[in-house]
## 1
Amino acid sequence: MNKMKKILAACLLAMPLLALTKPAAAELSVFACEPEWGALAKELGGDQVSVYNATTAFQDPHHIQARPSLIAKLRRADLLVCTGSQLEIGWLPVLLRQAGNTRVQPGQPGNFAATDFVTTLEKPVSVDRSQGDVHPGGNPHIQSDPRNMAKVAKALAATLAQIDGAHAADYAARYRDFDQRWQAAMQRWAQQAAPLRGVKVVVHHKAWVYLMDWLGMEEVATLEAKPGVPPSAAHLAEVLKQLKHQPAKMVIRAAYQEGRPDEWLSNHAHIPAVVLPFTVGGTDAAADLFGLYDDTIARLLKGAQ
Ligand SMILES: [Zn+2]
């Protein structure tokens, strides 16, 4: 078949499909601050939503530049889905101001913060910025525990139905289906992760407190002396010393984090440096929300061997 014929055949094949798809304008436009919320919105919204992820798994969600392209996307959004608890405090307020989109401003139904629907851990008694990136609402990195994801899913499905009432029944059905698959997956993960109970780890950033809580693992040290402050040589030496009488099985970091401090500790303490996806897209296997936890557990089990 020559090239022209091939194109023609492809067009003819595509035609009935095109006739079935809804016009783009009918979709609810979702702006997700982090990939895990974009993935969740897609699970729950299906064809009713178009999702834009503001960040990838290889960017530090604490520090994002408020680029014009992000502002343009937020201007057209019907729903903003973010972590909240001040994770995005360095960039989201600027975006919101510049976008001037009333639908997604704080207090509106189109402004959804995931941490509003879970119990956050590590809520500081007092907030002192000299202590680094300390978040007054508690540790924002809730996505490392799938039980949090279940709670956020329920709330997000309700929000989708509220904003797009015409498709409320679709969102409810999708949520029921997702929740069933999620509950089954959580049982499987709990079984697979049983050997991780009590395992001691060093973490790069205080980003895994919910994961530790979920799997019964223990964080014995952090490479960042203060959250968000890059590990110093002096602090690394201290951690190494600490490991002599309180050994750890591995040192873990997110896919976006610079790995040199981890590799240094790995070489000196003779423990593996483990990279976890942290969010959807952080590794090839973490292609969706289910893959995110499948791969996280697989990597932790390998590290703990
Ligand atoms: Zn953080």
## 2
Amino acid sequence: MKVSDLIIKCLESEGVRHVFGVPGEETEDILFSLEKSSIQFITTRHESGAAFMADVYGRLTGKAGVCLATLGPGATNLITGVADAHLDKAPLVAITGQGGSDRMHKESHQNIDVVSMFKPITKWNTSIQNPHIVTEVVRKAFKLAEMEKPGATHFELPEDVAKMTCRHTPIPPARVRRPSPDYKAIRAAVQLLKEAEKPLVIAGNGAIRKRASRHLRQFVGRTHIPVVSTFMGKGSISDRDEHSLFAIGLQSRDFVMQALNQADLIITIGYDIAEYAPEYWNPGKEKKILHIDFTPAEVYDYYQPREEVISDVAGALWALNGAVEEEKILFDPAWIKPFRRKIGDDFDSYRLKEGDAFTVPGALHIIREIMGAGDILISDVGSHKLWIGRNYPAYEPNSVLISNGLASMGLALPGGIAARLAYPEKQIVAVMGDGGFLMNSQEMETARRIGAGFTIIVFNDNDYGLISWKQQSHRGKTFGTGLTSPDFKKYAESFGIKGFAPKTLQELKTDLKEAITGRELCLVEIPIQPSVNYELSTKLERDCCARIESSRKRGERA
Ligand SMILES: Cc1ncc(C[n+]2csc(CCOP(=O)(O)OP(=O)(O)O)c2C)c(N)n1
């Protein structure tokens, strides 16, 4: 069989349904092999869009998303999306073409060392220099991408090898069980729980993978231990649950940090340090930490766990659930009630009234009411992301997707396409700032062409808003952040897509309802004032100072 045909047979055997990419001369054989297959090739407008689609598809489904690019510039364009999958722990397989092996040893057209370039942003990668290794390479790429912790892998296919023939058949994927926890580690974890008075869970990215969320919900139901999720762990337990203290993610000391301060044991579950550095919640390095994850803890000054339970996270929680039941370990969650109330009251304070300038948290209230518990909101990166993390409650795992590892702008629109392909029945919203939207807005054409219906929301402040927010806080002025946005409604219409530009609160409500429930591809531009960002900083600063003052008077820690 021809090598390019065999590769596609291997992808079919891995259960691949879509390949996202931009064609090139050196990928011609693989493209025509795809044409004959059951796999849908989705031609994108930029390789960055293709990689983000594969990234989000992988994150949502647990099955590796696949992206394809040609050599040289095609491969360099893939980089950001592949790196995003790498740091966000999303399974992704990137395939790139390459020139013939007769010219790879010398300066030649578009020839760069793509394998070396992908090395630091993948779990594993290689070049297929020999037709007899094809089936092993493809199986290994998928196995490693999907194995905990998941991430990106890459292989390149030189154009002359693509045309060769061989007599292999795909190596079928086989189920691999993840290891269960060491019983001594569980005993040590139980001992830490017995000694604790106010334990608190930080649920990270890994708490929503591989059914961990189901076991976490049981653990919380049994022990009444409260949970704070990271932005990427949102939905690990429902924010409607009285044990939820919503999410941490801001660098400044948000209200939820007060609960973290009081906790005497922090149980991290599937927590990725790349997402939210421990110095934000453990600045004094004195927290007692129980680390539960698929992999051992990073060596990190601010993160020195007392015990580590290394295993499948669901398996660890299952074992802990048995142990806490046996030992009748139970806590009184009353201590978190004031914090939950304070955070809830703060959410409510952002509801918009007729005549108010639009704000991100105000609009999020309206969007949350329209979206069902399992519907999917994908956030881009910017000040809107901080508001989504903080002020958009989640009820189910994988219903709020935030890139917080690499935290790259430009993910949400391609991500919306991937989400639509993975979940044809859900309402899907991609939320962006004007900056991030115009980094990948070309993919609106891809979405329209393939009939992927979802809602694009652009919060427009004519600015790289988050950077202005930070600069203002640090230096009291901004530089290099101002933008002039196009007319987004007309821009959308020029792609053949319906655009909304609400001006009043009533219009905002009706437009968002029509856009989201209509499930057609459309864009809603929401003009916003950034003042709400600065007001939040001032509010948190004041709150922190007031607490320090009152605890100083009582001789306690804030
Ligand atoms: C690809 C990429 N480039 C730069 C950054 C740094 N960055 C983080 S947020 C941000 C501004 C985002 O602006 P916008 O998309 O308009 O969203 P807003 O902050 O206004 O909500 C920038 C430049 C990044 N995270 N990703």
